[in-house]
Amino acid sequence: MKVHTSVDIGGLTLKNPVMTSSGTFGYGEEYADYLDIGRLGAVVVKGLSLQPKEGNPPPRIMETAAGMLNAVGLQNVGVEAFIEEKLPYLRTIDPAVVVNIFGNSVEEYGRIAAILNDADGVDALEVNISCPNVKEGGVAFGSDPILAGEVTRAVKSVSRLPVIVKLTPNVTDITEIARSVETAGADALSLINTLTGMSIDIEKRIPHLKNITGGLSGPAIKPVALRMVWETVQAVSVPVIGVGGIMSASDALEFLIAGARAIQIGTAHFLDPSAAAHVIDGIEQYLSEHGIDDIRDLIGTLRT
Amino acid sequence: MEETRCGLGASLAHGGRFILGEGPIRHTGGTEIKYARIKFVQKIRLCGRRDTARLLLGNEGGRPDHVGGFWIVKPDICATVFSQRETIKRHFLLTVTVPAYFGEALPGQFVMVRPQGCAAPFLSRPFSIYSVQPRGDDTCLEIFYQVVGEGTEKLSKLAAGDLLSIRGPLGRGFDVPSSCKTIVLIAGGIGAAPLSFLAQRCREEMDGVELMCYLGAGTAESLAGLKRLEEICTEVKISTDDGSRGYHGLVTGLFEKDMDRYTDDTVRIYSCGPRAMLKNLQALLTDNRASCQVSLEERMACGFGACLGCAVRIRSHGGGFVRVCTEGPVFDIRDVEFSE
């Protein structure tokens, strides 16, 4: 039975709902030896800033139970170097190319978006609002609904591309941020980014991460991510992309049933670079076995 | 007959892509490929890290009607443990049967390993390759490691027949110019592992090369890899922190006594061991002209350059961070910023 897995994410059409999560997939080419990238619905690349960013000093990562902490520090080549050095490869692959962006100020977000308007081969933007607003004393854009809305508006007002806004879970009520960002014009939302966490070396009595805290990802965060996706789907009308601890097709299906239009796979790639291919196969198999010929008939069918 | 060159993920105009996701091709001239559409391979040519090939897709009668190119993917391998044994206390020699392409591994390269189907600990662990030997159609890969935490503890319980997930060979190996006459190896503890592989290759490929090894450990009982090094090297000098065998002190102290011997272009120094040891060595070599490469380690998640977890600050590269797993693990000692 032929199953249809194509989904529409606010104007971006994907051949299947499986995307990569920003920060785990480099700029795509890093994976060329390890999996058939062409199978993915979309590649979401490492977050870009206006200027290159060197990232945090090591140690940057620490394993946890069912996951890992990272304090990589948004290391990236900068938007200009990306366009010149990384985008050419991405133009040769079949999946949609989503470029993740972040800035130190509302105005910087707008500037990066404007630069990417002229970049051939970019299919959508994903806006990372989980980073600190340097101008406002380091409060994360994504933890303030007003700031989150301002960033969204700054990007939407200049960009010709579909704009996905990626939400942080480190807030009291993610639906408040979600609604504000939707009102400001986001074409879609992706959630969640990492949960802030910490780990300590009991012999040296220092944090395992040089940065002290870091972002927790992996299976440990899946229940939180799933709950937030479910809450957000009920609060907004724009498509929601589910991210957080997805390791298998079964995990992905939970998010789809909860109402996510698409999903992203991140940390799973470190354990198995071909994880995304297995997830795509598993989703297709589930649809086939359950006699569902279109994935849209599965999305949001949670019974409560 | 038309020729199409396409990379990963591309589809031929005439229908169907033919990307290999099942496993590696054997580069021995053999043409067994696990993919239904492909009838036979005309030629395989190694091209950097990617293998390109011209394929002839035949129809029922065997007449070729399409020609295409593709890249071979190397997904994680499910490998079988051949044997494992504890050598000195808490040190294990693990032998795994892996596909033939691991035979191309270079000294200094490493693999990412996890017991198959094991959810905890979460991440794979990186290990230097200790040796690779062909065995029939396959390769025998040896890893020599010390149990230091949860991951190595779990690994040490595996026995013949158990399954492992392996990724590799990864990273950049040691550079050894053929003009080299003397190779100095300075090993601290389990740092002996990659240096032993290097010594073995040099002994096999460089006639008459002098292999001088300085091996240091905490105590006489923890001199890792000593036996194999003694078999390969011209001479092995030993140091122990507690003086229970050989020179009483650090291995860099032992090396320092001989340092004046190693000052010209025909000498190459290679070292691996604790950070503090490498930092000492860097200071010692400040006024010495001999080239020295070190193999570093850092916590890793992916091991192939995607996560940026294993950063090290390098003095060239504009003084920024590079990846131990990809730009390394081998670096010129003078280039490493140890004081981060």
Describe this structure in words.
The complex is a heterodimer of chains A (304) and B (340). By secondary structure, chain A is α/β, with parallel strands linked by helices. Chain A has a single domain (7-54, 75-196, 217-297), classed as Aldolase class I (TIM Barrel, Alpha-Beta Barrel), CATH 3.20.20. In chain A, 30% of the residues lie in helices and 21% in strands. In chain A, strands 3-18-17-12-11-8-7-4 form an 8-stranded parallel sheet. In chain A, strands 5-6-16-13 form a 4-stranded antiparallel sheet, with no helix packed on it. In chain A, a hairpin with a 2-residue loop joins strand 5 (61-64) and strand 6 (67-70). Chain A is globular. Chain B has 340 residues and is mainly beta. Chain B folds into 4 domains: 2-71, no CATH class; 77-170, Elongation Factor Tu (Ef-tu), domain 3, CATH 2.40.30; 182-294, 3-Layer(aba) Sandwich (Rossmann fold); 296-340, Dihydroorotate dehydrogenase, electron transfer subunit (Dihydroorotate dehydrogenase B (pyrk subunit), domain 3, Ribbon). Chain B is built from 5 helices and 20 strands. Chain B has helices at 150-155, 192-205, 226-232, 251-258, 275-284; strands at residues 2-4, 40-47, 50-58, 64-71, 77-86, 91-98, 110-115, 125-128, 131-135, 138-146, 163-170, 182-188, 210-217, 235-240, 247-248, 267-272, 291-295, 311-313, 321-323, 330-332. Chain B has a 7-stranded antiparallel sheet with strand order 8-7-11-5-6-10-9. Chain B is globular. Residues 1-72 of chain B have low confidence and may be disordered. The chains are: A alpha/beta (304), B mainly beta (340). Chain A binds chain B through residues 23-26, 30-39, 54-68, 70, 72, 75, 92-95, 218-219, 267, 269-274, 277, and chain B through 7-11, 17, 19, 21, 49-50, 71, 73-76, 114, 119-124, 165, 167, 298-313, 320-321, 340.
